[in-house]
């Protein structure tokens, strides 16, 4: 008999609220105990405490995240990186204007199926029905719209984190060309925050609180003092997650303003990942000790799994189904939904080749990724081989299984 | 972890509070494409003033701030006509604008005579920064002259709805207070809100002078002062407030631009060069610089389209455009070579810095 089954039986007799509370605590403990590398666990523990235990992301008006990095002030301006300068020039030329270039006069009608923000083939209605929850047509529409608001709200919170991380990375990077480039990324992230918030505030008119697990990731990388971990977290992991999430939404949505907005954002994000890959490859392959590389590998693996397994819309659960469904069942429904599979596919399609390119895919860690079923993405194109157009083409071409055409 | 911390952590916030609706910043650069509206009610306020209650045809709300205005686009006798009229409802209430007909006002007379429930037309906006301050506790001193009451009543009602205890002094100057717009609505507002000091002033004997204005307004350096009415009244009030020690930053004026007086326009295409965009455009008869530029896909900024907001201000590098008067350009701006793309047209070759 497995421990899970014993736990399930123990929980069975309790009221659902208590079941959820115990499941939540155990789940948080599982996050920490699943981290094999003690140094990684120790570095993430404070953020897990703040995000999952103390719920810092959902109380009060703001939260102070104390940074521990040093700003690298260049005194001689001799540290050149021509490829980064090239990326900087492209970033300057590619700046768009969230006010001018998007048609905010488009009236977003969430009830019109022809221009649905989140069409009805996205939410996990089949999984809900299997657990005995059947929504009528009106409820389904409202649920799909809430899920759209939730998803875009998390994009927005992620962009706020990205704004601060990009600023920190700009401070700590040693190459002058990296500082030039970083300044454009700060502008990019500020604009992304602007357009996502504006879309939510004026079109959907509903904004969800930051998800606990997303909060943990952002808190962790904003408070970590090591510049390369910050880079890895922000430019490779969070931007990789963002590309997967934005790409999924881009594929699903039929709302023209959001589609255009996401297209602009995806083009910027592709450049951000490219920058991270350029900055980290040399550093990881030539300058870190084997133990330091191992720690980064483990850290990236943990964050990848955290993002894959735990972006589970708990806020939507509490709003819609608390008392009707257990949190554990909800997690199962979301994890098995075809739309979630699409998200995972697009996320790892880019993430794995990039980790491979920068030198964080040793045979040792490959075995872990293989266990998680993620090695099929090895050997794919990394960020230095992809243009923004390639990326959009790949995203549009992907049709998840189990979804209506 | 203390018990209090544990309770706080377990209290789950799901949706973020948005008590005031969409943020003000989005409407500072106003929506610039006309939205179709249906007139659902016409309220006769006085013999020559009506309030139009408007419902957006697409069913989506038109978010607005108290004190802002809409540009109303009518077709009258086959000609497109645009006028800016203030929103007179409080934030959170159904969208309504109040229009006072001028004796020879082409659009305002049309509204009075022809607009009925069921009439359809379009609006642009809302636009305007004559809005409540960020400080939600600052006392308010409001001066309205005649039809200048339209944005002012929206400010007063919105401020008192948010905080019924807020100190609000509203001075309403009219030739005949008994026949003033919103006379009854203001009386009811004052009856419901003891914190509102409503002061009616009859100006049949002439506009109040500086001493009278000071006595009427009872200015305070800590209060935010809002002025809306005829130019002369606002100038006199501003001078009185400044003399009483009110900082300029605490004086807000609504610029009421009278209806434009169109002048004869060129009847043949005119070339316009936009230097920064590197594009040349043929302005067609009847088009403004803005119309011609937008038709060619040049990303020009604009908002009210009637010469009232200055958002479409562009610098003329060569040539002399014909500019409809009056408008909001200051003398200094004219001398520095600025014009308003929405209200000006080329009468010969023109080069614009845009």
UniProtKB/TrEMBL annotation, chain A:
Record-linked Gene3D superfamilies: Ribonucleotide Reductase, subunit A
Protein name per UniProt: Ferritin-like domain-containing protein
Protein's organism: Sinimarinibacterium thermocellulolyticum
Automatic annotation (TrEMBL), chain B:
Composition bias, Pro residues: 259-269
Domain FAD-binding FR-type: 32-133
Annotated keywords: 2Fe-2S, FAD, Flavoprotein, Iron, Iron-sulfur, Metal-binding, Oxidoreductase
Pfam families: FAD_binding_6, Fer2, NAD_binding_1
Spans annotated as Disordered: 258-285
InterPro entries per UniProt: 2Fe-2S_ferredoxin-like_sf, 2Fe-2S_ferredoxin-type, Beta-grasp_dom_sf, Cbr1-like_FAD-bd_dom, FAD-bd_FR_type, FNR_nucleotide-bd, MRET, OxRdtase_FAD/NAD-bd
Co-factor(s): FAD
CDD domains: fer2 (cd00207), PA_degradation_oxidoreductase_like (cd06214)
Residues annotated as domain 2Fe-2S ferredoxin-type: 270-354
Keyword Metal-binding: yes
Protein name: Ferredoxin--NADP reductase
């Amino acid at each position: 008999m497995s421990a899970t089954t014993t736990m399930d039986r123990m929980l069975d007799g309790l009221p659902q609220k208590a079941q959820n509370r115990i499941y939540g605590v155990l789940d948080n403990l599982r996050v920490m105990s699943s981290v094999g590398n003690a140094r990684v666990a120790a570095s993430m523990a404070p953020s897990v405490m703040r995000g999952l235990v103390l719920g810092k992301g959902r109380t009060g008006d703001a939260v102070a995240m104390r940074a521990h990095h040093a700003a690298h002030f260049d005194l001689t301006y001799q540290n050149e990186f021509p490829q980064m300068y090239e990326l900087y020039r492209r970033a300057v030329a590619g700046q768009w204007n969230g006010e001018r270039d998007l048609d905010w006069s488009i009236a977003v009608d969430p009830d019109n199926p022809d221009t649905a923000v989140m069409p009805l083939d996205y939410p996990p209605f089949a999984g809900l029905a299997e657990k005995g929850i059947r929504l009528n047509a009106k409820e389904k529409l409202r649920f799909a719209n809430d899920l759209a608001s939730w998803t875009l709200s998390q994009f927005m919170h992620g962009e706020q984190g990205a704004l601060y991380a990009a600023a920190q990375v700009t401070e700590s990077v040693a190459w002058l060309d990296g500082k030039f480039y970083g300044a454009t990324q700060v502008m990019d992230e500020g604009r992304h925050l602007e357009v996502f918030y504006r879309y939510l505030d004026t079109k959907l008119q509903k904004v969800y609180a930051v998800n606990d697990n997303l909060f943990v990731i952002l808190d962790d990388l904003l408070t970590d003092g090591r510049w390369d971990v910050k880079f890895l977290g922000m430019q490779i992991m969070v931007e990789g997650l963002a590309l997967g999430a934005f790409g999924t939404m881009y594929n699903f949505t039929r709302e023209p303003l959001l589609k255009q907005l996401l297209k602009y954002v995806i083009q910027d994000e592709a450049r951000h990942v490219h920058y991270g890959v350029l900055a980290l490859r040399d550093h990881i392959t030539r300058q870190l000790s084997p133990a330091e590389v191992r720690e980064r590998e483990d850290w990236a693996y943990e964050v990848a799994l955290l993002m894959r397994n735990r972006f589970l819309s708990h806020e939507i659960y509490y709003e819609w189904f608390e008392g009707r469904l257990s949190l554990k069942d909800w997690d199962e429904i979301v994890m098995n939904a075809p739309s979630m599979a699409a998200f995972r596919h697009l996320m790892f399609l880019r993430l794995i080749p990039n980790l491979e390119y920068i030198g964080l895919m040793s045979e040792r860690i490959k075995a872990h990724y293989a266990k998680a079923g993620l090695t099929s993405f090895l050997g794919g194109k990394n960020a230095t081989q992809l243009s923004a157009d390639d990326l959009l083409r790949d995203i549009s071409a992907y049709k998840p299984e189990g979804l209506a055409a | 972890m203390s018990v209090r911390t544990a309770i706080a952590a377990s209290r789950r916030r799901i949706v973020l509070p948005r008590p005031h609706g969409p943020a003000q910043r989005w409407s500072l650069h106003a929506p610039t494409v006309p939205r179709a509206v249906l007139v659902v009610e016409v309220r006769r306020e006085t013999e020559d003033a009506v309030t139009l209650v408007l419902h957006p045809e697409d069913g989506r709300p038109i978010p607005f701030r108290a004190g802002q205005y809409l540009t109303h686009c009518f077709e009258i006798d086959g000609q497109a006509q645009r006028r800016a009229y203030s929103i007179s409802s409080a934030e959170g209430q159904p969208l309504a604008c109040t229009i006072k007909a001028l004796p020879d006002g082409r659009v305002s007379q049309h509204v009075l005579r022809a607009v009925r429930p069921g009439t359809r037309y379009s609006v642009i906006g809302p636009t305007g920064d004559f809005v409540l301050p960020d400080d939600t506790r600052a006392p308010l001193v409001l001066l309205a002259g005649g039809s200048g009451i339209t944005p002012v009543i929206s400010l007063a009602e919105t401020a008192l709805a948010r905080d019924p205890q807020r100190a609000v002094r509203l001075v309403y100057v009219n030739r005949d207070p008994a026949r003033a717009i919103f006379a009854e609505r203001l009386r009811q507002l004052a009856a419901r809100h003891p914190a509102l000091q409503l002061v009616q002033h009859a100006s049949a004997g002439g506009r109040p002078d500086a001493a009278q204005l000071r006595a009427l307004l009872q200015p305070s350096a800590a209060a935010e002062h809002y002025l809306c009415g005829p130019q002369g009244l606002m100038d006199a009030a501003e001078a009185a407030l400044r003399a009483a020690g009110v900082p300029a930053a605490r004086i807000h004026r609504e610029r009421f631009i009278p209806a434009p007086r169109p002048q004869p326009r060129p009847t043949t295409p005119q070339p316009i060069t936009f230097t920064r965009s590197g594009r040349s455009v043929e302005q067609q008869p009847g088009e403004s610089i803005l119309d011609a530029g937008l038709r060619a896909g040049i990303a020009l900024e604009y908002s009210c389209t009637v010469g009232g907001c200055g958002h479409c201000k562009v610098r003329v590098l060569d040539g002399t455009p014909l500019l409809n008067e009056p408008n909001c350009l200051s003398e200094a701006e004219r001398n520095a070579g600025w014009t308003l793309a929405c209200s000006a047209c080329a009468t010969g070759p023109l080069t614009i810095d845009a």
